[in-house]
Specification:
By secondary structure, the protein is an alpha/beta fold. The protein has one domain (3-194): 3-Layer(aba) Sandwich (Rossmann fold), CATH 3.40.50.300. Helices cover 53% and strands 13% of the residues. The chain has helices spanning 15-26, 34-43, 47-52, 67-76, 80-93, 107-111, 125-136, 140-156, 178-194, and strands at 3-8, 29-32, 99-104, 117-122, 169-172. Helix 1 (15-26) crosses helix 9 (178-194), helix 2 (34-43) packs across helix 4 (67-76) and helix 4 (67-76) runs parallel beside helix 8. The structure holds cytidine-5'-diphosphate (CDP). Cytidine-5'-diphosphate binds next to helix 2, helix 4 and helix 8.
Length: 195
């Protein structure tokens, strides 16, 4: 059986960095599921059709990391038919040997409820805005507003809202270096794999 790691949390909390590091450390595949929703939002037209016809090329667009692409993603992500069109791809991705790391909003609650390890990564609003603004070269205060708006939309939607799974380990990265956050997560995987 492959080992599955589900990482969820609000925007720019450090999920992606931790997910990539875990995948590298354990030789697992990694899927940034946010990219799927960003690509659907960026495609324009009918979002349900866009989700049903998503191609690898759509995920390679260079404009997917911006605050605007994030807002468009969270709008299409609230549409139940968009989400259901993307479920099967994510679930089959999770079945890869020797393991897979998926990061997003509903991985531990909806996509992989049986994941071997569930992490819910958080950080203060200000820390998240500072990190994301530096990453994409945007203004920190505009980024703070965009992140808060997106978190509210993601948490309040009816289908697969952002929330920790009951058995998720909550990791607050506000005061942690990347190295410390990754070491903590690696330790958790080692414990679960040994058990
Ligand atoms: O990187 P960041 O945390 O800012 O966002 P992302 O993971 O790229 O996700 C962009 C948007 O896609 C989120 O704000 C959610 O609305 C949506 N999303 C989702 O609904 N479910 C997921 N599993 C992943 C992303």
């Amino acid at each position: 059986m492959p080992f599955t790691i589900a990482i969820d949390g609000p925007a720019a909390s450090g999920k992606g960095t931790i997910a990539r590091a875990l995948a590298r450390e354990f030789g697992f595949s990694h899927l940034d599921t946010g990219l799927l929703y960003r690509a659907v939002g960026a495609k324009g037209g009918d979002p349900v059709q866009a989700a049903q016809s998503l191609t690898p090329d759509d995920l390679r667009r260079h404009d997917l990391r911006s605050n605007e692409a994030g807002q468009a993603a969270s709008r299409v992500a609230a549409i139940p038919e968009v989400r259901s069109a993307l479920v099967e791809f994510q679930r089959s991705f999770a079945l890869q040997e020797p393991g897979a790391v998926l990061d997003g909003r509903d991985i531990g609650t909806v996509i992989c409820p049986e994941a071997d390890l569930k992490l819910y990564v958080i950080a203060s609003d200000e820390v998240r805005a500072r990190r994301r603004a530096a990453e994409i070269g945007a203004d920190p205060s505009e980024t703070l507003i965009a992140l808060r708006e997106r978190d509210a939309r993601d948490s309040e939607r009816a289908t697969a809202p952002l929330r920790p799974a009951e058995d998720a380990v909550v990791l607050d990265t506000s005061e942690l270096s990347i190295g410390d956050a990754v070491r903590f997560a690696v330790g958790l995987v080692e414990i679960r794999r040994a058990g």
